[in-house]
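Q: Two folds, back to back.
A: First:
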Amino acid sequence: MKNDKMKNRYRVNEQIRAKEVRVVGDDIEAEVLPTSKALQMAERKGLDLVEISPNAVPPVCRMIDYSKFLYQQKKRQKELKAKQVKIDVKEIRFGPQTDDHDYNFKLKHAKGFLAEGDKVKAYVFFRGRSILFKEQGEVLLLRFANDLEEYGKVEQMPVLEGKRMTIFIAPKKTAAAKHNADEHAGDANAEGQAVKVKAAPAVKVKKEYTGPKVEGEDF
């Protein structure tokens, strides 16, 4: 089906309706020719006449191997599709009175998401009368964005919609490198501490006798 769509994008050989065309191609000097003459030239070369710019005056046609041309077009589309980066949006939920332990836990996850190239949608959910603390929720989200400054940039400042106040943070290109550096630094610190503890010498204490010396005994 995809190949059929690709073929229908171009007029080839006898499908070309214009009376004259501008002919281009490898080792061919561009010139305007009657379509019939251009077709004869393409046939002698064992090539196809493909209309690549139908809206030009006159239309531009290229002398090429049409099968090879379709293959190259298909390959180019695959390469472009492969280069397209898929960005997921990861959600992180807070309460208006989130404690530091829960905050730091979610901050660590957000750093990982941004380092992997995902966007972060962080929001504070206000349940019942907790909507009275909406200013506190906004302060929390702004603190969250500030703590992620080296990993992401704010795409949308905190916005209150219904019972949710939401902020969007997009990844920075340097986020992955920063995340890896932090991970390695943490491992290095842990290893250094372990070595330091291991290297600490044991101290042997000799008890000194301070009483009167008894003849014939050594202390």
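A: Second:
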Amino acid sequence: MIPNLSAFEYVQANSIEQACNLLAGLKKEGRVIAGGTDLLVRMKHRASIPEFLLSLNGIQNLDRIEESEDEVIIGALTKLHKIQHSCIVRDNFLLLSDAAGKVAHQLIRNMGTIGGNICLDARCEYYTHSHIFGLEYWPKCFKRGGEFCHIMKKGRYCYARFSADTVPALVALNARVTIVSHRSQRSIPLEEFYTGRGHPVNILQPDEILTEIRVPKLYSKWKGVYFKYSCRKAIDYPVVGVAALADMSGGVCKEIRIVAVSVASSPVRMKEVEDMLRGVRLSDHVISEAERIAIQGISPIPHHGDSPRYIRTMLGTFIKKALLQIID
């Protein structure tokens, strides 16, 4: 049985300015909530115990998909289901539509938001289940204020695994995210949003909010695919996920971007593979060599019973499968 949620204060903001001011004035631990499909589960497991929840659902224009001449703008509160079926997204970025449609199952996609998927916490069974019902079964890890990682016993930081489905597609599409606070507003490439560590997973400060994603139309004519393997096909996080996006001309790869997820604590650009494929005709031999380079280029951490060897094998298989589909 999962225990009830701990007591918390709930406030709904009516504007970005109000939300930023509320976060800036907090004297207690707070969290921003929209769909809640990840945060509420962690709260039930006592993996996260915020004293204050700030809902963004009352803010106008954060649930939108707009198209300009140069880019597509997606509000952070846009539901994954809406992104999956949006004509604007499908016409420009079929890769993103496909990735959004592979997040969990329909009920989750009806509730979950693109901003929440981008800000997903890195996963670790020790963190999630080491303190069910408030009991401590293992020493506190980095995520819980300790100085220990149960996955890498001698590690100096958290090695939890990042497993969001839409993120490799968005990184492949060179998307940018807009971050606001009461102090300023900034726009950065999504690829720079992640720390490379399991805690903290991203660079968001406690008083900052991710408000929108901007995807350049430069990539709208490129061919892209997203492949995901999970233990439970309908609802699970990816054991390995691969997004590939290529500009092809007569079988020659003019340019390519390949991003893997669930192999490290952040999405991973497969730059060695990209460099090897750029300007090359994608023959069977070239694709096999890309698979080999991909397998050698990562050092995955074992998680949830998945061995590093198995993760490498699945990554290589998916990169090969993606390249074959791109030239099909």
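Q: And?
A: The first helix runs from residue 16 to 24.
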